[in-house]
Amino acid sequence: MEEKRVLGFIHPDLGIGGAERLILDAATELQRCGHKVHLYTAYHDLARCFEDTLHIGGKRCDWIHVSGSWIPRHFFGFFHIFFANLRCFWLSIVLIFSRRKTQIELIFVDQVSLPVLIVRCLSNIRTIFYCHYPDSLLAPRNSIIRMLYRFPYDLLEKYSTLCAHKILVNSKFTAQKFLNAFLNVESLDCPDVLYPSVQLMSVANTVNLSDQNYKSFLTINRFERKKDIFLAIHAYVHMLSMHKESDLCKTRLLVAGGYDSRLVENVEHISELSREAKRLSHRKSVTFLPSISSNRKRKILMESLCLLYTPMEEHFGIVPLEAMSVGTPVIAVDSGGPKETVENEETGFLCSSSSKEFAEVMYRLCNDPKLASSIGSSGQYHVCRNFDRTEFGVKLSKIVEGVLKSPLL
Fold this sequence. Notes:
Blueprint: E1 6-11, H1 18-32, E2 36-41, E3 64-66, H2 80-97, H3 99-102, E4 106-110, H4 114-122, E5 126-131, H5 135-138, H6 144-162, E6 166-169, H7 172-181, E7 192-193, E8 215-220, H8 229-241, E9 251-257, H9 264-279, E10 286-290, H10 294-303, E11 306-309, H11 319-325, E12 330-333, H12 338-341, E13 349-351, H13 355-367, H14 369-386, H15 389-405
Helix pairs in contact: 1-15, 2-4, 4-6, 8-13, 11-14, 13-14
């Protein structure tokens, strides 16, 4: 029988996103396995967060500790990575100095790897680093100044990541990118893949509620340009051109997702999308739903005819799993993480990043309810069999126990 452990988490900003969902799922499932958890973050907005970070009265859960919110995210739009590392450095120090009280034995770190290095240098706490995607591969290098600016941070990321006692990634796609980012490291083993998961509901509670008289197409992403939400709008408009004019009023496109008014790109991009829908003369049939609650998200997933998942080379993509878990078919770009979660023509559809291809599948689902129902049911079974959150927690608990019992290097 596994021992009950005291575990720490360090995450820079506990907002609403796939990384935050993963961290919370890991923390809550480890607690369900009997472990005690302390999560350290520099920012947690009670008005914009996942509901399971709050008590019923709206207060922050006792196991979540906020420190370092006084450290800015940037300086007039610059030095984001510097301040992200500064925040995580601060959180690492706070965690170490509070250890006498908390008795933390292992920390789980993601996004910024600096805490791994700090904790290993200043304590004997074991470390797990969960890589969503190597940051060095995300940062643009469109000038010599930017390349010089990034150079020390890329070295820091590489060295601190490799200091972890255990490295996990979210997909085979990310595992390969991870190896590419560390090509010059001798005898680097491929990191273990631990897929994110979703909370399953009983079959009775997951019947797709799509109203056949009013068909909703749904896309859910953070309001960022790299998510290519324009593709969903263009595919929807293209699909409408394939319908009879009398049927046009019976469809709508819901554009939902994470929105943070602190982020300039979020503010700019939602305006860009609204203008594009207006330019295409379909603004009234395109509805924007920024920062919806988890309950509202699940409701519109269940009510929609299908989910349009548009990012190219997405590292994993939790939203397709959330859609399949409630019996809603998924249409996703045939690249990155969705290639590992969506089985083409069986549990969903994989298309090129083409509005025409997306529109053709949307049209098929719109006009063939039996196909939509069959794909939805297959997707639901696929998620239940492969991406159950309880099983995710059991796997992670075994990994934690393995790290704690391994020799301290």
